[in-house]
Amino acid sequence: MRFQGKSWKFPDDVDTDVIIPARYLMTTDEDELAEHVMEDIDPEFAGKVQQGEMIVAGKNFGCGSSREHAPIAIKAAGVSCIIAESYARIFYRNAINIGMPIIECPEAVQEAQEGDEFEVDTEEGWVRNVRSGNSYEIAPFPEKVKNIIAAGGLMAQVAQQVRERQQAETK
């Protein structure tokens, strides 16, 4: 998978309450969640972020409460992937489960400036900052993770597998 886009930079310890404030958790409507993503850290973010752009963040991104709403809101806002120094474990798994590509690359984050354009190739295993020209090695996604993301998330992958089995059984 390849991604390219402008970056929005966020600090260490951005928690799920900041990603999508609890006052909006009464809905599962992805478009509504996207309207409020990152609202408590950057009230204008949802109106500024464009399809395909990226979030670049410090350590422990997605810490705090376990809520799938957080990566759903980010993905629904049009963010193509997240590059962070590190992730809270539950956010990492929730992001994969909803099909959001997340990359750990501390070196890229440390040199990043707001608005830098990044290129990411998860097959070949690299992140490149277009402004600086620096490239960084990343671990390619394991096959299972790659398949979940390609399907659009774990539930979409399971639904696809069920359909394929049903089609095979009817032949």
Q: Could you explain the architecture of this structure?
A:
The chain has 171 residues and is an alpha/beta fold. It is built from 8 helices and 7 strands, in the order βαααβαβαβαβββαα. α5 links the parallel β3 and β4. It starts with a strand and ends with a helix. The model has no long low-confidence stretch (mean pLDDT 95).
What's the helical proportion of residues?
Answer: 25-40%
Q: What is the averaged pLDDT score?
A: 95
CATH topology: Aconitase, domain 4
Percent range for β-strand residues: 15-25%
Unreliable segments (pLDDT under 50, ≥5 consecutive)?
Answer: none
Large-scale geometry: globular
| Backbone structural class | alpha/beta
**Can you tell me the CATH class?**
Alpha Beta
CATH architecture term: Alpha-Beta Barrel
Assembly form of the protein:
single chain
Strand order of the largest sheet: 4-3-2-1-5-6-7
Secondary-structure element pattern, one letter each: EHHHEHEHEHEEEHH
Number of strands: 7
Short description:
With 171 residues, the chain is α/β, with parallel strands linked by helices. It has 8 helices and 7 strands; from the N terminus they run βαααβαβαβαβββαα. The protein has a 7-stranded mixed sheet with strand order 4-3-2-1-5-6-7.
List the helices and strands and how they pair.
Elements: E1 2-10, H1 16-19, H2 30-35, H3 45-48, E2 54-57, H4 69-76, E3 81-84, H5 89-97, E4 102-104, H6 106-111, E5 117-121, E6 126-129, E7 135-137, H7 143-151, H8 154-170
Parallel strand pairs: 1-2, 2-3, 3-4
Antiparallel strand pairs: 1-5, 5-6, 6-7
Helix pairs in contact: 7-8
